[in-house]
Structures are given as C-alpha cells and as structure tokens.
Specification:
alpha+beta, two-stranded antiparallel ribbon, 4-stranded mixed sheet, 52% helix, 17 helices
C-alpha cells in the first residue's frame, strides 16, 4: 500500500505542478536530494538495497520494465518544456501578444539541456505533449541497461521479459485486501527483486541439495519447488472464475475426460465455447530463467512459454477433435505465451460484455499476475531449510 501511495499520490504527483511551472532544472542539487530521499524511502518500504543499475530501472515506467517511480531529475526538463508549449498561445492571448513576440524565460536553456540529454534525437513534432520529450530519455536509459546486460543471458532475458505488458500487471493492481490483491511484505520484496535483478537471500543449500545463490532464482525451477502446486491451483481458479463470470460455467479436473497417458486437463466448460465444442485448458508456469530456457528467453520474450504450449498441444491431440483446447502457458517473470495472450484477449471481451466494465480484461490479467508473484515467492522461500519456530511461547 505504501508503494502504491508513493507512486500515485505522495511524491512526483505532488511535485509535478512545480516541475511544470518553474525552472527547477537550474537546481539539480536540490532535486537530487529529493530523489535520494525517495530512494531511501523505497529501500525501507521494500526491504531491498538498490544498485545503481537497478535504481535506474526502478525509475522507468512500468511499460519499460520499471516500477513507475519517476525522479524529479528526469522529469524537470521535459515537464517544463511541455508546459511552456502547452500554454504558449493562452499566455499570448492574456498578454495581448502574438506568439512570435512572446518570449518565455528559461525556455531556450531548457531545450539546450534536453538536447544535451538526447544529442541524436530530433525535437518532437508535437512539443506540447510531455510524453514526447520524456520518452527519448526513457529509451536511452533502457538501451543502456540492455547494453550492460548483453554479455549476461539471464539478465538480458529478464529485461526482455519484463518489457511485455502483462509482466507488470501486478504493479497496476489496487492493493486491496478485500479483493485479494494485496501482496504481503515478503511477496512484494521478492516480486520487486526478481523484476529489478536484486539479491533476495543469502547463499544457502536448497532442500533438494543444490546451492542457491543470492538471487534465489533456483527455487523457480527446483524439482521440489514449494510454490508450483499453489500457483497452478491459483491460475486455474482465476481462469475458472473468469469463465463463469463471462457466462461459461466450468469445472476443474473434469472426471472421465483423460488424454492418452491417463491425465486429465485442468478445466472444462460445461457449455460450448466455439463451433459447438466445449473448451478444455491446461495451465502451466515455466521459469523464464531456468538453465534450459535462458538462452531462448534472451533472444525472444515468451520463448519458454511458447515451447511449453507446443508441448501441451501435442499431448492433447487426441482430445482436440471433440474439444477446443487452449494451452495456458505463462512464465515466472509474468510473460504470457501466444496462445494464452489470445485466450485472455477473447475472454476479456466476453468479460467486458458480461460486466459492462471496459477494464474487465485488465483486472483479469492483474489476477493472473498476482497469482504468479505469490507462487514465485512461495517457490523461493521454499528453498530455505525449515527452522523451529517459537509457537510454544505464543500458544501456551
């Protein structure tokens, strides 16, 4: 909740008026102190320690793989220039001056600073939109992160995966305990650390006997992963509830419906889904950074999920004649496979028609994203050896 309030209410949103209306770019030292304060606050709230690269990533918008915590140093120039151009005609009208005769103090200086920050980029065609001045700065920072990770497949795979829109859906969710969308402190810390590439734990030995490094990523692909079953059950429950809401009542693990090897699909709709055929689905969540997937994931986001989906299609060939099968494959970093994306898009449309809310699809994706993050946290924490608690003190 504290992260949500800082991002949407208490920090840059409170300062944006001053950034747009005054030349604060002439006081970078003051703005830097302001940004240092928010960095310290976030480290306290999230219980993490930012490296320089992870802090750069943190300050990027969510769609560029960050947390959406923007800094005053990054926004001071774009916001001032855009504000001047947006109000230029109105100010001229108020002062009874033609646009050519109206000079705005510090505008030339601000544009020179922007050219210094973005030396090889042309001035935006529509200068009144702050996004047009801000996006080039964001892209340069993201390109720097990709270049820094070019020699490390796991880091490059991570940066590519979090660029996918659905990977950051959990950051857009309203942290409401009543709606089941509020992450506990450990889950939030692990979710942020996985997204930003931060250390999660101390080096230790997993319950399976493998040494776990400080990133804790082994737990995501461990053969004894503690969060695998809970995450799988949560994903199927979200899908079933969404189908029921859209008017397609469904059941999990339908009895009597098996594939060639005797295993059942995860779910079945009790009414036809398309062309008179009922829908069956099988959900899976594969590790983006697993040793067997990391090379492919460093080339294309969603590669691991697409491979898993193709394997599912082959396993359910015998049922595809009488049923419409969807392999719902997602990844631990939040990326959806192509079949899952298409299914979510179609089901999202049905949810919108049933509920009348245009945000129904986004809410559906947020539910799935939250389930993935909780499963990740359970998997990573499950690698830590069990210790004796002090229950005898609290439950005498």
């Amino acid at each position: 909740m504290a992260l949500h309030l800082i991002k949407h209410c208490l920090w840059i949103p409170k300062l944006m008026y001053f950034l747009r209306c005054s030349p604060l770019f002439n006081h970078i030292n003051f703005l830097q102190k302001f940004d240092d304060a928010i960095r310290t606050s976030l480290e306290y709230i999230l219980n993490v320690h930012f490296t320089e690269d992870s802090w750069i990533q943190c300050t990027l918008p969510i769609c560029f793989g960050g947390l959406g915590i923007r800094t005053a140093v990054d926004l001071c120039v774009p916001s001032f220039i855009a504000s001047v151009h947006k109000t230029h005609d109105l100010v001229g009208t108020i002062l009874s001056k033609s646009p050519e005769d109206l000079e705005v103090a510090f505008l030339m200086e601000a544009e020179k600073r922007w050219k210094t920050m973005c030396p090889d980029i042309e001035v935006p065609i529509f200068p009144s939109a702050q996004n047009n001045w801000d996006t080039p700065i964001i892209k340069l920072k993201h390109e720097y992160l990709l270049t820094s990770a070019s020699q490390h497949p796991a880091e490059k795979a991570r940066l590519l995966a979090i660029l996918e829109p659905e990977s950051g859906a959990w950051l857009h969710a309203l942290p409401s305990p009543q709606l089941g969308l509020c992450l506990d402190a450990d889950t939030l810390r692990i979710a942020v650390s996985l997204r930003l590439g931060l250390d999660i734990c101390q080096t230790h030995t997993c319950v399976c006997g493998v040494t776990v490094d400080a990133t804790g990523r082994h737990g995501l692909s461990c053969c004894k992963s503690a969060g695998r079953f809970s995450r799988h059950a949560a994903l199927n429950d979200v899908i079933r509830r969404a189908l029921n809401t859209a008017g397609y009542p469904s059941v999990l693990e339908p009895p009597g419906l098996v594939r060639d090897d005797g295993k059942r699909p995860d779910g079945l709709t009790l009414v036809p889904w398309r062309m008179g055929k009922s829908l069956i689905w099988d959900a899976t969540c594969v590790d983006t950074l697993a040793p067997s997937h990391v090379i492919g994931s460093a080339v294309e986001a969603g590669n691991a999920a697409n491979i898993a989906a193709n394997l599912k299609l082959n396993k359910y060939k015998s049922l595809s004649t009488n049923y419409f099968f969807v392999p719902f494959a997602v990844e631990t970093l939040g990326t959806f496979g192509l079949d899952a994306k298409h299914f979510v898009s179609v089901l999202g449309t049905f949810l919108k028609l049933a509920s009348g809310d245009s945000r129904s699809k986004a809410y559906f994706i947020q539910r799935i994203s939250i389930s993935i993050q909780r499963g990740n946290a359970a998997s990573i924490l499950g690698t830590i050896p069990r210790t004796v608690s002090m229950d005898e003190i609290f439950f005498i």
